[in-house]
Amino acid sequence: MKKIILYSTYLFILCFSAILFTQQPAQAQIELYDGKLILKGFVKEVAYYRTSMTSRDKYYHDNNLAHLQTSALLEALYTVRDDDDMTIRLFAGLKGYWQKATYFDEKYDRSLTQRAKKSWSYPESFDDDILTEAYASIEKGPFEVRLGKQIVVWGSLDLAQVTDVVNPPDFRRGYPGINTWEEIKQGSWMIRAFYQSELPGNLLFEVIFNPGDYKQIKLAHEGTWPGTAPWGPRFADHDANIGIYEWNREKWTRDSPGWNTSNWEAGFRIRGFTYGVDWTFIYWNSIQDDWIAVASPSELSQFAFWGFFPDPEGADWSDYGRIYDAKRYDMIGGTFERYCPEIWDTVWIIEWALDFGHPINKGTNGNDQAPTGVTERNIFDIGIKMQKALNIPWFTQSNIACGRMLDFAITYQWDKVLSHEGRSDAVGSRWHQNTDSVADNITLYFKQDMFYNKIVLVFIGNYYFQIGRWQAIPSIGYSLPGRHWRIEGGYAMYGGKHDEYINYSSHNDAAFMRIRYEF
Amino acid sequence: MIFVKFKNLILTVILTAGLFVTPFFLGAAEINYPVASYSAEELAKVREWEKTWAGKKIDKTNIDQVAEFMIPTLVGIYKDPGKWGSPPEGSYFNIVPYKQIIETKGMIAATKKYAPLVKTDPNGKILNYAEIAGIPFPEPKTGLELAYNMECNTRGDTYKIRWWAPSIDPRHRTDRPADQIFEEMYFIHRVDVDPKPAILKNPKGYHKGQFLHFVLPPEMYNSRMIVMKFIDESKDYSSYLYYSEFRRIKRLSQAERTNAIDGTDMIYDDGNMWDGYLSHNESFDLKGKKELLVARNQDMKNVTRVAGQAQADGWDMERCNMYVVEVKHKDPNYLYGKRVWYIDAETYMIQYQEMYDQLGQYWKFMQQPTGDVKTANDEMKSFSVGFQMHDMQRTHSGFTRNDVQKVSHNVKRKLFLLSNLQKTY
């Protein structure tokens, strides 16, 4: 009865707000003080409904609604001065979210600790979870300086993160495509400066210095959506609401280096245009965004033991010393982008990176779940993308496509751990097969705007060669009349072979829906 | 004594020099610009007609009486308001007296200075195109000359406008809004803004640069686009889009010039009625002149519409002579089988355009009203103040209200650099 009331109230509020707000002739941005202050943002509701659950999954759920989140973003830009001599602007972004799936699923709590539930359900830290960016931008002549918390996107590929290394992602509540970069990327406090030269090739110089604001990649919590399925000790004790994954996840979060001047990060990027090629060259010196196990094998075994068999005495993470750490490495990289009319009117993008001394674990038989030590390896990563706007004679000018060509792109990414010592190196990457120095994948993307862009059909699919797994996500979006509302729905499918070390359920297929109000 | 001795020789030299020099001065004096749309005799007839019609409101009930001065497609739209999303009483326009448009001082001076210097090959192609400015052919005789005149109207050399441009579905009476800020600057053919006639420091050989900043639709908010056209017409346009949702800069291929622009009926080549290389067209057939009712001194405050209304109300139409030019593209697979331009005989702006598909069937109709705007030089310049278009095959339309913010102002060249794409706003 309680759930029926909850569902009814929820649906009523959603429908009422849609009817109420679609009738308002409002602007898509709010301009105040003669346009000096601009406010912009959105409110969004995202739901995932799983279409396939194992009997084990069902123990932790009493229905298939795995994710139901309200989130919002508000951005404000204030122009202090804008004239021929100088431009000064202040920018700030705030986000918030509220995960409600647990209200509709009484068994959800079986798989979540209170800590994980809080972290997943609503913001806990103003700096980490609410403030996306906050900086001052000062432009004078060819110089521009931005001071404050910022999100930087380097690189030209859409989803592959080859040179996009500055801000680590936060995957606790979704992935790119469903969530915006403002929701996924963690802003860092930094100084960012540009110099637009008049040298040949219009060279643009960019320098970044982060004085020590270390941010770690945030992975989804165990048992949440999207995240790893509940596992670990639950095989022996279903009612233990923490598994081995969450036990470790909490530990590496606690061991994260945090704010310290010794965690400085710095780098530069040069951008130019030469012989028809847009290119960049990048250097980045940083603490790794992920982690490696640094404790001794015996300490690790002891720590892991209590992850598998929760301590009845209530021992927790503070009883252990440093298990995980993040080490410094540096990298060079770059991008090349060229329009090639001679190759079927395509645009080609190549993005590459070479990490020097990237820390990785060693493990028996390459098992990164049981590390035996630490080493450093150079890692080479390259992505090649071909994109084309396809004119399909019988379709593009039809009453469906209304003149819009099909956007098509195919990307191949190849990642190689150099000097790899075979079975002793534990690469520790999600897409690497253990003991294999190479991980590669291919991504297919297309987008077709239809009915004058009122409807947008998107498909994205990946195949990971080493682990033999794939995902395919077709989706369709609809822009409601007016300026504010968009609805998207789709179906996420996963498949391929099983890997003993990767908890990647083939029962994760889910239908999803997103409704967004933008202002 | 010496003078007497060489008298005949000196006189011969003076006379010979005179023979060479005189036509130059006479030629300069013969440049007749600006040229009015009507001769005095023609204008008298127009004024007589205006005694009956000026001030009249035209709608579906009386449009047949002025249909001889209208493109039949437009008449059809006014006569079928239900199909085109108009209110039950239909759309209307007003007839106003013809008023000659005088170009800016800079345009007049440049035309008088450079028109005599225009060099062409036997096919009519201008050989010194990057060195001239103003209207190259003040008294055009061919379709190609008119096309050059159209392209050399640089709209004040620089301008910044904000488009309020819904994409209209008249059948469902809905609008899909677009709000974009657009800036354009010419690197050559400059007549109103220094340096004239060209920016000398132009190593990449740009013809013009465009910068587009999206406000609406919401999914494109703060996306930015740079498009560069080159003097060398063998070079493809250089186009970059910064897609703010993904914070990525995307390079666009030349093939996308015929892609429909974000939910509209326009393609990139349709910008300002024509935005492409003239040399990509096979032919420009001048079909003669036609008197049409045209909104060419339009105050956009008089123009109103409701959501879903394809043809707005309140255009102030005046009789004026239009050159009619039929344009065919060199590429047999080009999107349009042909375009028909209706070019204003005073401003050389394309006021109306009709497009046919590859099968030769009528497809699209475009209208580009013009009106006076004040430039940074304190002059009035006839400028595009709005836009209407109708896809006759799909019954879909577009409307634009141009908020012209600046004309002939100083534009920093860094506006067209990639560093300007990834900005805060």
Characterise this structure:
The complex is a heterodimer of chains A (519) and B (425). Chain A is mostly beta strands. Chain A has a single domain (2-518), classed as Beta Barrel (Porin), CATH 2.40.160. Chain A has helices at 2-22, 55-59, 101-104, 114-121, 126-130, 181-184, 244-254, 297-308, 393-396; strands at residues 30-32, 37-50, 65-82, 86-99, 131-140, 143-150, 188-196, 204-210, 265-274, 277-287, 292-293, 324-325, 328-340, 346-363, 371-390, 406-417, 425-426, 438-450, 455-464, 469-479, 485-496, 510-518. The longest helix of chain A is centred in the N-terminal third of the chain and has 21 residues, at 2-22. The model of chain A is unreliable at 18-27 (pLDDT under 50). With 425 residues, chain B is an alpha+beta fold. Chain B has helices at 2-5, 7-30, 40-53, 72-79, 105-114, 143-152; strands spanning 57-58, 93-95, 158-164, 167-169, 174-176, 179-186, 206-216, 224-230, 238-243, 248-252, 281-294, 315-329, 338-344, 350-356, 362-367, 370-374, 380-384, 386-391, 396-407. The chains are: A mainly beta (519), B alpha+beta (425). At the A-B interface, strand 2, strand 13 and strand 15 of A face strand 5 and strand 10 of B.
